[in-house]
Write a structure and sequence with these properties.
Layout (H helix, E strand, L loop, with lengths): L1 H30 L3 H24 L6 H29 L3 H29 L9 E4 L5 E3 L16 E4 L1
Antiparallel strand pairs: 1-2, 1-3
Amino acid sequence: MAETRENLSAAFAGESQANRTYLFFAEKAEQEGFKSVARLFRAAAEAETVHARNHLQALQGIKSTTENLRTAISGEHHEFTSMYPAFIKTAESESEAKAERSFRLANEVELTHHGLFESALKKMQSGQADDLLPFFVCQVCGHTVEGQAPDRCPVCGAQAKMFRQVE
């Protein structure tokens, strides 16, 4: 069973990564005027999502919302305290400026996500989970805000028009 769990975890990671990759490929195909190819990439991305969900369910990785929030809080904490700082250090030492910038932006945003998840958990525990305001995500760095988009992103400086509301 241990090897099967490892295989499910690897398959979940691979399918999740394929989903995102195909969606980015679809954006590029769309930009280049290949609408049918873009649809194909989006369809394949959707199928990869189905595979990823099935693998995560087999791993019993989807639990109650309270447990899922705790898992998210833990994951975000790991990212901004351990994972990204190590990645930043390596990118600096290898003079990989683009990677370093990408890691730094992500690291700052993961701290924000951690706080948003903690806040949502507290609201759930006090019976106010449905009182969350709309969320907006900066399309440059991923900074996430509740309520309304700021005039400028506090992480990367992007203008308000670069924020997309998430339903």
